[in-house]
Amino acid sequence: MEAFKYIIIGGGMTADSASRGIRQMDPAGSIAVFSNEPYPPYSRPPLSKGLWKGKPVDRIWRNTEARYGVNLFLNNPVSAIHPAEKTLRSVEGKSFHYEKLLIATGGSPRRLPCHDPGVIYLNTYEAYLKLREKTEKGDHFIVIGAGFTGMEISAALAGTGKKVTLIFPSALIGERIFPADLARAVTDYYIEKGVTLLDSARVSDIQSKKDEYLVMTADGRHLQATGVVAGIGSIPNIALAESAGLAVDDKGIVVDECLRTSDPDIYAAGDVASFFNSFLGHWLRAEHEDNSNVQGRTAGHNMAGQIEPYTYLPFFYSDIFDSGYEAIGDIDAGLDTVSDWITPYRQGTVYYLRNNRICGVLLWNLRRRLDEARKLIERQETVSRDGLKGLITPVVF
Fold this sequence. Notes:
Blueprint: E1 2-9, H1 13-25, E2 31-34, H2 64-68, E3 71-73, E4 78-82, E5 87-90, E6 95-103, E7 107-109, H3 125-135, E8 140-144, H4 148-159, E9 163-167, H5 180-192, E10 196-198, E11 203-209, E12 212-217, E13 222-225, E14 227-230, E15 234-236, H6 239-243, E16 253-254, E17 266-268, E18 273-277, E19 282-284, H7 289-303, E20 315-320, E21 323-329, E22 336-343, E23 347-354, E24 357-364, H8 370-379
Parallel strand pairs: 1-2, 1-6, 2-3, 6-17, 8-9, 8-14, 9-10, 16-18
Antiparallel strand pairs: 4-5, 5-6, 7-15, 11-12, 12-13, 18-19, 20-21, 21-24, 22-23, 23-24
Helix pairs in contact: 1-7
């Protein structure tokens, strides 16, 4: 039986960051990474952002193997974990022993409830390549869902000159996260950019024939396209942890402040981890790059013997056409919001309040203000609505 001091299940950004964290504490301990994909760890945000704006593909690769001396087991999913023996088994039937284990299995895209032949769920490099190939064969694309992925890839495709139809069940784009006036402005922005919107609509069936797709909506519309992309959320990959007897909840694999699962020698981090954030006062699962990077590194430190609580409040960001935003904390349109626009809907800040305390901040076309925003949340001070005006201002260069 092959043995490694550290084993990481999952070959994404969290695995790369955890490898880095381990190496910062332990330069020599053996590390193995088991991945479902045929590709080594890479940055995922460019799949719906930068790669469509000319960013070189070679810049997405994290070079984990060379940088940290990691043994990569690609296209080699883990089928079972046996905590009592501190072993795992790969789908190839081989067993491996570990001293410390990290589960970084991420999430899988939520699939459409209807027949979905050839629909692309843009969560892997392989899916990106399929979509890129489709763009070389035709000009009309249908995007289903106006969440983060749907918003980004519809903007990216339209930015390359493609005809894009965006289908989503709500009345406005971003209705669940933006205050109503901003959601209206964002919706109008997509229309101005040439995206055809089918709001308050649901897909009932999809048929494919050669290089064309027919998408049918519940209200009887039929649309043809060269390609169909769906972004309707993700589901944490907890089955492996659950079958190993580890504690899980409705968000993911439950971890303590040091990212340990219910087994002290097994950790979880990234999109699959359910952790408590004291500043927000609740459990959350963060599916974004910043959390993968920082939480992965912290898990690596702790696997290598540190006692380092993960108290960090991660942020997320998005780019849509020539606009972009960064957000931190609870971004929920159901909360009380205060908008402070420098230029209405072009540059400014939206504060999200719970019990008159800032619990989230949205920075619209305001860069390099995340540290300020994070501190405002961490202070947990009672604030007045008028007192928020002018609190965060643009950086002057």
